[in-house]
Amino acid sequence: MRKICSQGVTFLLLVLLLSLGACQEFIHNSFDTFTGRIVDKEGNPVVGLELIVTQDLDFGVAQAPVAKSIIYKVKTTIRGEFRVVVPSRTDISFNTKYFLLLTAPVQFEMEDDGMSVLYRYYSFSTAGRDTEGMIDLGTLKIVRE
Question: How far apart are CA 124 and CA 103, in angstroms?
Fold first, then answer.
């Protein structure tokens, strides 16, 4: 009887420790702010471009990526700038990656090993946050299809 009771207490303590430690995905009362600027090939700001912020993209065969869930839809300002605020995730969270997905017939132009590559999405992580929770994505170039 004593062995069964001891095992039950051990099991309860283990469950309690796991639930306290493993479930902390977000940092209480803390937010990350993603900022950036969208320009065209000539370096001019792109005004009113709608961006979707998501953590889940469906990369189907022979189709453009589709957001499985949308966190935000945001449009660029007259200066081509955007700003998104999301709850901060802990460094041990399973998913600290986000995606900016374009909704218009445009693509992001990125440099990869000296070559220009086009993507319908831009991926980024919260790993680059500064002490105030700011993540500057810099200037992103798009090309129209």
Answer: 18
